[in-house]
Amino acid sequence: MRRPDQLVQSRARVSRRYALMPLEGFPPSRLPGWGDADVFVLASPALGAGFVQYLVDLPAGSSGQANRDAGVETFYYVLAGTGRLTTGSTPIKPGSFGLVPPREPAPDFTAEQGPMRLLVLHKRYEPAPEYGLAIAHAGHVDDIPAEVWAENPDSLLQTLIPDDPAFDLAMNVFTFQPGCGLPVVETHVMEHGLLFLEGRGLYYLDGEWLEVERDDFIWMGPYCPQSFVAAGPTPSRYLYYKNVNREITL
Questions:
Q1: Which terminus in the chain has less CB density within 10 A, N or C?
Q2: pLDDT of 88 higher than 70
Q3: Under 8 Å between Cβ of 68 and 106
Q4: pLDDT tens digits for 111-160?
Q5: For the chain, first and last CA: distance in Å?
Q6: What is the predicted pLDDT for the residue at 103?
Q7: pLDDT above 90 (res 86)
Q8: Mean pLDDT over all residues of the chain?
């Protein structure tokens, strides 16, 4: 937040193909089911996205539930703080994640000892009868192997959701050492919702290189040219969504 006597400037960019939004530009919302939590709406159909993504700050001792309809699946990732999933009393901590398929009750969360920050993503599930329905999946990022990507040991990929055609989304974590990044400019039909977790770098979005850092959110629409290179003294790490494994409807 800048002082009243300073000029207001921002790295925020919003276009038809992409959006880069630093967290400082998001006013919090109050949403049904989340009580007194601050909810930041990162992506929505109003932006052009085919999914909804929230950043949720849940105060200590408070509970909240990810409301959704019967056809929607929910992914969550704990960014900070500790607590538990009220259903089953499962303890969760930073790095805990889970995918709840549409036929199961929406997840609810309780923050314990201190506040908890969550990333929550909703997507309308696209069934593929020949593969069966997706099943609930949960884990911790530290237990997911970091695999060398593009034959570069300084670029590591963690695949949080099983690579199984029953799932219609992917949630991955990329870690790049300084000076490393994506070796090409990608252009594809999948869209992304990306939250920058650590470090800083330069993201190429539809012809422009833009500075990015921790807590920035990026939406990339279908066919947005995109690439990334890590900059600064520490590794860069980000969590991103993409839609996968389904025919393109007409």
A1: C
A2: no
A3: yes
A4: 998 999 999 999 999 999 899 889 999 999 999 999 999 999 999 999 99
A5: 45
A6: 85
A7: no
A8: 94
Q: What gap in Å lies between CA 131 and CA 164, rounded to an integer?
A: 9
Q: Are 240 and 188 in contact (CB under 8 A)?
A: no
User: Using CA atoms in the order 40, 41, 47, 50, what is the torsion angle rounded to 10 degrees?
Assistant: 140
Would you state the structure tokens that stand for residue 245, as one six-digit string?
């494994």
Q: Which residue has the tokens 């860069």?
A: 236
| CB-based burial label for 30 (10 Å; 0-12, 13-18, 19+) | exposed
| Structure tokens belonging to residue 188 | 């594809």
Give the bridge partners for 121, in sequence order: 53, 75
pTM of the model: 0.95
Q: For residue 88, give the 3-state DSSP assignment.
A: helix
Confidence of residue 84 (pLDDT cuts 50, 70, 90): very high
Instruction: Name residue 125's amino acid.
Output: Y
Q: Nearest 5°: phi and psi at 91?
A: -70, 140
Count of H helices and E strands in the chain?
Answer: 0, 19
Type of residue at 134: A
Residue type for position 93: K
Token pair in block for residue 26? 């998001």
Asked if residue 224 lies in contact with residue 208, where contact means CB atoms within 8 angstroms, the answer is no
Residue 55 tokens read as: 């950043």
Q: Which residue has the tokens 């490393």?
A: 180
**pLDDT recorded at residue 167:** 97
Q: How far apart are CA 203 and CA 226, in angstroms?
A: 7
